[in-house]
Amino acid sequence: MEQETYSVGLDIGTTKIVAIIGKENEFGKVEVVGVGKAKSLGVHRGVVNNITQTVQSIQAAVEEAESVSGVAISEVVAGIAGQHIRSLQTSDYITREAPEEVISEDDLKRLEQQVKKLQMLPGEEIIHVLPQEYKVDTQSEIKEPIGMYGNRLEARFHVVVGQVASIKNIHRCIVSANIKVQDVCLEPIASAKAVLSQEEMEAGVALVDIGGGTTDLAVFKDGIIRHTSVIPFGGNIITEDIKEGCAIIEKQAELLKVKFGSAWPGENKENEVVSIPGLRGREPKEITLKTLSKIIHARVVEIIEAVNAEIKNYAQGDQKKKLIAGIVITGGGSQLKHLKQVVEYITGMDTRIGYPNEHLAGNSSPEIASPMYATAVGLLMGALEIQEIQASTKSVIEQQDTDDTPAQESEHSIEPKKGGLLGVFLNKAKNIFDELAD
């Protein structure tokens, strides 16, 4: 196997760390050759709180993926999330010095750089500045202003902000595991890449990624990300509720949730009982499934109501912002029985479970097609995009060398421009990690 033909995605979650190695086959599908999974011991609600344990978990996941695939991992595209991530909307404008010339990429960059000077809270830094729509002079609702004439260029932006310390800690953990950070991506965007269709993003859709420590929300409309939010509750807090409510240990609570748990209490009868082995010779504990589902239902309702509040906060009753494609739920927490029905009941919106299988090759393991691997598959897809860009850039350079094109003239013409939704994030997120590496 040639190492350079493979890419790697690294999902650093609250409950698990996943390293996934793959390549793009001749049909444009993702062919996964190795997956490594390790329990995440040093991460709480998406934020690293123990460097040593996180490094060990990353190394364990990477070693397993290398062992399965026979491919050595030297660099990864990593996911960034956690309760420290927040977003805001802002508008700004520039007055062009030469309105007789058409608007260029440089004008858009100048406007974005101006937005990056926004004053943030102490310890925070802007991660992404994402244009929503532009206005040139009096003409509004412009998606692509390049090539137009105008004096005043204005835009609305979606700004994603994170804690500098949290971002540095993730970077340090990966580097300490002797791996290079090739790029980073906001995890809900990676999940969206893996499970959403372009039609859904155009029509309007809310992606809800229910992880172990957090629930990530990303709202798309007209093919553009419009709103992001991180809700500091996930599958782990449901397990914690079962543990406390049933007076059992965490391992038993997790097993109960996965095997017998339901988000809808109405389906269970009073006489349905499961027996839990007692500790150290104690009597077994009997728990009714109705009691179990009531505990789960209460916390699920709280999470989904928080999601619904965020969606309403985005739409604010504006019909133009209506999410025609409804909600797509993914992540490990989405596999909870009857969760889809509860989400539809609370939000009144069509809902489906998001599987990453549409982008996977036919011979992929059924386990990889599970919603719990959506983020990891999305990160791998991002890594493959980068590989494709690097290959095309190399080809252009070689072609220009053959044609004896002076290097100075070709410098800007060969600069890779990453396309697509994930590409926007990869371009911008690279800057912050480059600064941290210095």
Number of strands: 18
Largest sheet: 5 strands, mixed
- Mean pLDDT, all residues: 86
Question: What's the arrangement of strands in the largest beta sheet?
Answer: 3-2-1-6-11
Instruction: Give the % helix.
Output: 25-40%
* H/E element sequence: EEEEEHEEHEEEHEHHEEEHHEEHEHEHHH
The separation of the N and C termini measures: 33 Å
* Rg from Cα: 23 Å
- Low-pLDDT runs: 407-419
* Broad shape: globular
Assembly state (oligomeric): single chain
Number of helices: 12
Question: Your description of this structure?
Answer:
- With 438 residues, this protein is of the alpha+beta class.
- The chain has twelve helices and 18 strands.
- A five-stranded mixed β-sheet has the order 3-2-1-6-11. Strands 14-13-12-17-18 form a five-stranded mixed β-sheet, sandwiched between helices. Strands 7-10-8-9 form a four-stranded antiparallel β-sheet.
- Helix 6 packs across helix 7.
- The chain is globular.
List the helices and strands and how they pair.
Layout (H helix, E strand, L loop, with lengths): L6 E6 L3 E9 L5 E10 L3 E2 L2 E2 L2 H19 L5 E6 L5 E10 L9 H11 L8 E13 L2 E4 L9 E12 H13 L3 E7 H9 L2 H6 L1 E6 L4 E7 L2 E8 L3 H12 L3 H11 L12 E4 L8 E4 H27 L11 E4 L8 H9 L3 E3 L20 H29 L4 H4 L9 H18 L1
Parallel strand pairs: 1-6, 6-11, 12-17, 17-18
Antiparallel strand pairs: 1-2, 2-3, 4-5, 7-10, 8-9, 8-10, 12-13, 13-14, 15-16
Helix pairs in contact: 1-3, 4-10, 6-7, 6-8, 8-9
